[in-house]
Amino acid sequence: MAQLKYKLLPENSAGGILPLNVAIVDYADIQQCGLTMPQACQIVADNVDGPTAINIMDLTAVTTTSDGIMVPSAIRAMAASDRGKIHPEFGYIPMAEIEHSEALIQKEPHLRQWDINYPGRRLFRGPDVADKPVPVHNVVITGRACNNNSGTEMMHLVTMGEILMPYIGQHVIASGEGKLLTGMSGEHLSVGIGMTTAEKFGRVFSTYRYRAGDTAHGSGAQAKTLKRDIPCIVASKATHAGFVIAALKAGMVPGRDIGCSPVNLAIARAMHLPIDYDNITPRAWLELESVGFSREYLETPVPKLTEAEVLEHADEILPGVDNPQLHTIDELVQTCWAEVKA
Description:
Blueprint: E1 3-9, E2 21-26, H1 27-32, H2 37-47, E3 52-58, E4 63-64, E5 70-71, E6 74-82, E7 85-86, E8 92-94, E9 97-98, H3 102-107, H4 112-117, E10 123-124, E11 140-142, E12 145-148, E13 153-156, E14 162-164, H5 167-175, E15 180-184, H6 186-192, H7 223-226, E16 231-235, H8 237-249, H9 262-270, H10 282-290, H11 295-299, H12 307-312, H13 314-317, E17 322-327, H14 329-332, E18 334-339
Parallel strand pairs: 2-3
Antiparallel strand pairs: 1-2, 1-18, 3-6, 4-5, 6-7, 6-8, 9-10, 11-12, 12-13, 13-14, 15-16, 15-17
């Protein structure tokens, strides 16, 4: 009898920071079992008691992070389950495929990475909310489980416990390549989450809003407090830096093509690569300045680092995550098997 493999981060694990279960399923394993994505989510729900966020990930596809960094995998569907149930209307949604076209790349210049770094891959980011109703911020809900921002922020709706799992960290879990950090999100990550790019079917917003160089938060110095005290599970800084460097080498300019998040700015500054200072909006500057990323600071001369040097010193160069603890994947993630009944 076939068995479906899935990766599980159990509720209350990772030092007690996970407010609910998080399950990640490889799309290839679903295909191998002859299942549909909704069927696979239900099998996971049947085998994981309690509130659970479920993400189906395709390692042959591609996606972009909310600040425009392209990654060679994608969430294909997300679900929320509780005690074996998935709400029939609001508990599951697939991500929309975005067709490659020159017109799209003209409208979304950060997608120039696609042909340079990952040609031929299928692109998925967020759902098409016109195809199926979904609450704001691309969220699915069942019982106590809430899976938000296209599968990158999860909440327990009774305890109000919350966990941030930005996409690159989930890529590490699904691919088995790299290490993970746990800690508190901190002020830089709180600000960086707001530095989005305007996208069709984006991870957070389904329509074109908040271009590169702007902020989706628009809350001045308060932006650094919005997510500051929420725990997170993210990729190691060296792993994250590798994907940002790949985007920068493909010609992406922070503030123009990709978001002006502190991490993107820090790496571009260290490597003496362009930053479009004049395209960053005044309200985005207010948020950046609140965490020390003023234009004066960014333009202050620093020694030019190579790609290898940035990766070697990523923990010092990349801001974000308070009290970080480095983990291997196996320290946080369990590999589980569920029986597929005929």
